[in-house]
Amino acid sequence: MRIFLDTANIEQIRQGAKLGVVGGVTTNPSLMMKEGLADYEAAVKEICSIIAGPVSVEVVSEEPAEMLKQARKMAKWAPNVIIKIPATLAGLEVTSTLAKEKIKVNLTLCFSLNQAILGATAGAAFISPFVGRLDDIGHNGMELVEDIVTVYDYYNYATEVIAASIRHPQHCIAAAKAGAHIATVPYSVLIQMMQHPLTDNGVARFMADWKSAAQKSKK
Ligand code: E4P
User: What mean pLDDT is reported for the chain?
Assistant: First the structure.
């Protein structure tokens, strides 16, 4: 399973890139606004210069003609830009058109298997089921990821599944077990994925033993 960072924070993206495990980035209008990135284009270009893999950038319109206009413009910002389109009827229409133009789409805000089937049929390169937001309303978000992976495998759809709206490390484990191609995670979750108290205790003990043995050998 590949790991994408779900953030528009440039410093977090730089830190993640240093670890060598971040294969892409997903942004959305809320994440962009959180960082106060008024110049959308400049911010996206900077992110694309740090991360060579897919960088998802979302259109901000609900009207197909305007969505298409924005998507075509954004797709020119960098070769690794992926256009995020919401899983609405208008979004489906736009996805079909962009796919024909070889512009890659990440169909976002996916909350049902039917949306995922139609997105793949329309030619979306990625589908983003929102796990955490489904959990929030008492559904099992990861079950949707499992269902999409099963059905896509069954019909050999080329669309890749991005487990999105990830809230904690257990979501990452479940996404990997479900066969998601990608998990897009907040920076805090990426850090948590690597942390374990027994590793920290083990390192501390090895260091202490090493120091005391070295002191004894000096005597
Ligand atoms: C994915 O591409 C979205 O940006 C993101 O995962 C949304 O997550 P949230 O539910 O934490 O806002």
Answer: 97
